[in-house]
Design brief:
It contains five helices and seven strands; from the N terminus they run αβββαβαβαββα. It is of the alpha/beta class. α2 runs parallel beside α5. The strands form two sheets. A five-stranded mixed beta sheet has the order 5-4-3-6-7. Strands 1-2 form a two-stranded antiparallel ribbon. A hairpin with a 5-residue loop joins β6 and β7. It has a single domain, classed as Glutaredoxin (3-Layer(aba) Sandwich).
């Protein structure tokens, strides 16, 4: 990868018009599939999120549920991870700040988990040319940055379009309930992310942990 591909303004990258290039037409999630609610640090809250849908994409809204394929080809939904603190981002391969955030994300996630139950979820939106991302883009992104958390293929940019993305990367700071606490259209500092995780764990822990 050349330096030009990973260098960008720290303020974020504006969306680009995709070039006319060929892509994988059969990538994406199956509309008929359903996602089982995954286990996490507070299993007592899982049942209440099984029918979660969400309300909107602005601060104070509850992020709408989605279903996309991860790097392993598994159907993955937002509601699988509710009950944990979430950092959700929409990224592209051409965006410098997106690459910079991904390069630090493996270590960041380890620090997050030391604070409390937490996840990072990345939506891969576009490739190097600003065409819709393919499963290969997801696989190469995961390999390049040694990522173990879910990286999801945003099929034909449908999910990111509904999020009304104005600049990449887009970060959502999500409470364990699904509420959007912050919407940030740039790469946030690691210290800001960790401070949010700490605050969210403290604010919601007593409500979310199963009561004896």
């Amino acid at each position: 990868m050349t330096l030009a591909l990973v260098t960008g303004l720290m303020s974020g990258c504006s969306p680009r018009n995709p070039l006319e290039v060929a892509g994988d037409d059969d990538d994406g999630s199956s509309p008929e599939a359903t996602c089982e609610v995954a286990d996490n640090g507070w299993p007592g809250v899982l049942a209440e999120h099984s029918s979660y849908q969400g309300t909107g994409v602005s601060q104070g809204d509850f992020l709408p549920n989605f279903q996309l394929k991860d790097q392993h080809g598994n159907d993955t939904c937002l509601n699988q991870f509710l009950g944990s603190v979430l950092i959700v981002d929409a990224s592209t391969r051409w965006c410098g700040p997106c690459n910079e955030a991904a390069a630090e994300s493996a270590v960041l996630w380890e620090h997050m988990k030391e604070i409390g139950p937490s996840w990072i979820l990345t939506l891969m939106v576009q490739d190097f040319t600003a065409a819709p991302a393919t499963s290969r883009d997801v696989e190469e992104w995961v390999d390049m940055y040694d990522i173990e958390y879910p990286v999801l293929l945003d099929v034909q940019e449908q999910t990111s379009a509904s999020w009304q993305v104005n600049s990449y990367p887009l970060f959502f700071f999500i409470a364990p309930t699904g509420e959007i606490i912050e919407r940030i259209e740039q790469r946030p500092p690691e210290a800001e992310i960790l401070a949010f995780v700490q605050r969210a764990v403290e604010d919601w822990a007593s409500d979310l942990r199963p009561q004896d």
